[in-house]
């Protein structure tokens, strides 16, 4: 098909926030005819002129509207009429490929309805474009994706308080690769194991980060027995924080009303790392520790466990845990005794963190992003949410990859 060149005759930018915001361009097509699709003859007789407006991209976060006159020709040879073929626009479409990309990237940050308003179409039409793009990528099939060396498995509840947990699987190998691999309706052990068996090259998987949920561990050991199971550092510190809170609440219940209120107001001092406290906050913390020795013991145990993930190697971490264990037993605080049993139950997986240093921190961040997207649209179907997230992942992966290349060039230069 011959390319139909055009010239921009006039353009006007309407800034974001105004009605019909965007870059409006008037185009003039520069050819005098077209080839008949039926017989191939060159035709110049114009049967009809149809004014059209199409969206051909984005400019400063707003659409680019191209207005032109689309001509219908009559063939002198076979007497049929046909619309002029345009190399940059598919027949019967109102979006160029660049326009579709702009629409998809806008839909990653806005609701379908809001995107539709920006691009002059319905929210349902935007949803169709997003779902169609997602289906074309075929990201649901693990066989069509590179098997990652490192993964994170977690659950997410999109409807707060309803307990409807869904499984999410993330690729933790490199930051510039789209990381969301799967959102699954169930987190049951058998279904998790079945999903893990779908990878094309399971032998390439080195480690998987999880929280302290027994079915995940069992599923991984069943489907991928060679893989290291790593307990994320966040969940270990979270368990210690809960133990510290239980001690504080027990102490608080024995104090006067005024003292209990003051202790509650200063509760953040006990959880935060000592080095993050200001001079005034350190003084208040020392005052509480001197007044309540039991609280001082709990804070000391919590802060020492925080130091676990500053250890440089496996042996140093194991020595610190052994010292921490002796201190917990000597302290006699029930919440930390429960915490100690948790450490014993998950000790190999906790220590695997010092063999393979991966974290589910990005997984937790992506889960927050999924929840924000879901709230933004007052609830999406799993397919629509997965499609929006995939487009956002593709968009940010390109940015991260460019940043990595720029950083690498600066270091080499």
Automatic annotation (TrEMBL):
Origin: domain of life: Bacteria
Ranges for domain Transposase IS204/IS1001/IS1096/IS1165 DDE: 151-388
Alphabetical list of Pfam families matching this protein: DDE_Tnp_ISL3
The name of this protein is: ISL3 family transposase
State the organism of origin.
Answer: Effusibacillus consociatus
